[in-house]
UniProtKB/TrEMBL annotation:
Its cofactor is Mg(2+). It is an enzyme of class 5 (isomerase). GO terms for molecular function: phosphoglucosamine mutase activity. Its EC number is 5.4.2.10. It comes from Autumnicola tepida. Residues 397-454 form the Alpha-D-phosphohexomutase C-terminal domain. Keywords: Isomerase, Magnesium, Metal-binding, Phosphoprotein. The keyword Ribosomal protein does not apply. This is Phosphoglucosamine mutase. InterPro entries: A-D-PHexomutase_a/b/a-I (IPR005844), A-D-PHexomutase_a/b/a-I/II/III (IPR016055), A-D-PHexomutase_a/b/a-II (IPR005845), A-D-PHexomutase_a/b/a-III (IPR005846), A-D-PHexomutase_C (IPR005843), A-D-PHexomutase_C_sf (IPR036900), A-D-PHexomutase_CS (IPR016066), Alpha-D-phosphohexomutase_SF (IPR005841).
């Protein structure tokens, strides 16, 4: 079991010993640190925080601990109940709140949960702010409110509907065009809040919806990371139902993957590529993704006369670079769409609406749309870490072995070979080294990944 503290929040497994897992004591301590940081930073006692959660089995428990801790500090809490990460992000500025907490471990299995922290803009905290909260959690005592100054919890459980309305009102979302296309779509909500939000959005756009695993009970029917090896059921159902496509989200609805009409993966890397292609046809400008994302976004951006830049991995890094370059769209190759006209956060609902508008406008099949984009293939692997391992030393050794190639050390080590690339980095959320490769065939990408895994294991030996 595990507890991971990072600048973006605290993530861990439920149960076990304190300080080693996400126990009630750890949850309270971290929520208190966040609330204390807000009060000190803002220099005011009347602080408001939005809290929402995905449908994990532990979610209600963790949310009650979090909200009660905040009210004990004298903070007003807006309780969204079952929600999505982008919904909480949208709700923070709409509520004129000072911050937000999303209770979700994203794509991690059901035994995990996390507190993910937002600022008053509904965006993830900067590295400096996150580090300060970690410091408060470890070193400071807390000053809780007296009985007459306790905060209160205000329930507002209609924010998924408000979020959907915001999406439908985006200038580049053409609801009438989507309605006229008569799409039939299978949705896999992995028994979390995507099972609430995505079908609602689709029905508002006149789409026929077939629901698969859309009961928000937290019992994930398969590994919740939306990768090909986990999605056999929806691929089969799309073909059986003769649907136009399938839509898959992770438990907190910030990662988005599509299945084509043949039951084949569109490719989560190409979620951003397709949405960017549509936006760039309507708006000239630049794009941003992270170093582990496909070269295809760069190619599409260049095709439309725009400029592309790559950031370090992590949503906060992508968002910062998007703001610096005034990007019209950006995101991450894991199916995360960030569209500034909506908000600066990964949002699968925005991605679905842009993608379906694009598909309706082109009036082609999903498989035909995929064929329009550059053919790159990725292999995503990982090596489990053991305590005490010198990961930085391992990465430096890899860098030294390939010093004659084009190398970036902005985030881990990325080696750009002429026809392919490999990106090695220590995960911020799991005790692993991630190994991403991309090439012009799947075999080449897989072979390069295995070669790098062997190289790392040789160094570790």
């Amino acid at each position: 079991m595990s507890l991971i503290k990072s600048i973006s929040g605290i993530r861990g497994t439920i149960g076990g010993k304190t300080s080693e897992n996400l126990t009630p004591i750890d949850t309270v301590k971290f929520a208190a640190a966040y609330g204390t940081w807000l009060q000190k930073t803002l220099n005011k006692n009347k602080v408001k925080v939005v809290v929402g959660r995905d449908a994990r089995i532990s979610g209600k428990m963790v949310q009650e601990l979090t909200m009660n801790t905040l009210t004990a500090l004298g903070i007003e809490v807006i309780d969204l109940g079952l929600s999505t990460t982008p919904t909480v992000e949208v709700a923070v500025p709409m509520e004129k709140a000072d911050g937000g907490i999303i209770l979700t471990a994203s794509h991690n299995p059901k035994q995990w949960n996390a507190l993910k922290l937002l600022n008053s803009k509904g965006e993830f905290l900067s590295g400096g702010d996150g580090a300060r909260i970690l410091d408060i959690a470890e070193k400071e005592s807390f000053d809780f409110a007296e009985v007459d100054d306790l905060g209160e919890v205000i329930k507002k459980e209609n924010y998924i509907d408000l979020h959907i309305n915001e999406v439908l009102n985006l200038a580049l979302v053409d609801v009438e065009k989507i309605k006229s296309a008569g799409f039939k779509v299978v949705v896999d909500g992995v028994n979390s809040t995507g099972g609430i939000a995505v079908p609602k959005l689709l029905k508002e756009m006149g789409v026929e919806v077939i629901e698969l695993y859309c009961e928000p009970n937290g019992h994930f029917p398969h590994n919740p990371e939306p990768l090909k090896e986990h999605l056999g059921d929806i691929c089969k159902l799309v073909k059986e139902e003769k649907a136009d496509l399938g839509i898959v989200v992770d438990p907190d609805v910030d990662r988005l993957a599509f299945i084509d009409e043949k039951g084949e993966m569109f490719g989560e890397e190409y979620t951003l590529v397709a949405c960017a292609d549509y936006v760039l046809r309507k708006r000239s400008g630049s794009t941003v993704s992270n170093l582990s994302s496909s070269r295809a976004l760069r190619d599409i951006t260049n095709k439309h006369g725009g400029s592309y830049e790559a950031s370090a991995v992590g949503e906060v890094n992508v968002v910062k670079l998007m703001k610096d370059t005034n990007a019209v769209i950006g995101g991450e190759g894991n199916g995360g769409i960030i569209y500034p006209e909506a908000h600066y956060g990964r949002d699968s609902l925005v991605g679905v609406a842009l993608f379906l508008t694009h598909l309706a406008e082109k009036n082609i099949k999903v498989s035909e749309l995929r064929e329009e984009y550059p053919a790159y293939y990725m292999s995503k692997n990982k090596i489990e870490l053991t305590p005490g391992l010198d990961v930085d030393g391992i990465l430096k050794s890899v860098q030294k072995r390939h010093e004659n190639e084009e190398i970036s050390t902005v985030d881990g080590v990325k080696i750009d070979f002429p026809e392919n690339w490999v990106h090695l980095r220590k995960s911020n959320t799991e005790p692993i080294i991630r190994i991403y490769t991309e090439a012009k065939s799947q075999q080449e990408a897989d072979d390069l990944a295995q070669k790098m895994i062997k190289e790392i294991r040789d160094i570790m030996a």
